[in-house]
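It is worth pausing here to work through a concrete case rather than discussing structure prediction in the abstract. The textbook approach is simple: state the sequence, then state the predicted structure, then interpret. We follow exactly that order.
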Amino acid sequence: MTQRRGDARRQELLQAAHTLLRTRDFREITFVSVCEHAGIPHGSARYFYPDLAALLRGLLGELGKRHDEALARPLRGAATKSWRALVQCMIDRSARFQQRNPVCAKLTISGNMPSELKRLDRDADYDRARFLLARLDEFFVLPRHKDNERIAYYAIEVVDTAFMLSMRECEQVTPWWLGQAKRGAIAVFEGHFGELAPRPRRA
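Step two, the predicted structure:
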């Protein structure tokens, strides 16, 4: 029961931070304001999150997990016909998630997040690079390149940069910048991998 109560309070604090970030900038919220919004004394809240930075790290982790679950949905149809279509599908999924979750966009691609949060998101991009390579390898024959993970990570950072520029310009991921993200990522893979042959399908 104590564990459940603790988990519930963590979620209440995360939800309060999420709610405040919908309409406010990072600099406009404090740990105390989040606690007040959650209805939890800040002295008690520090048992779960010692400060605002820790709370935002927790929120970023939750949203990042949901983002990656959206990427991991099964691939079907046109998305598996070519490696370019697969990469574009992954980028489209990421863009849709950011568009539907503006707080996640604020924490990851706004260009205004604290440097610590950006570093954590970039660290998570290494896992996303490995995931993207695994999806490509599922349907296509990847070259045995010693820098495969580095190449995929670079492609993801190119997408991140295009999304960030779109956020700065329009406060959302626009179709034009989404197109630039796709062109940039595909160019990175083309430059290192060339054409990828389809993997023979099992009968």
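Step three, interpretation. The chain has two domains: 2-50, 60-193. The mean pLDDT is 92.
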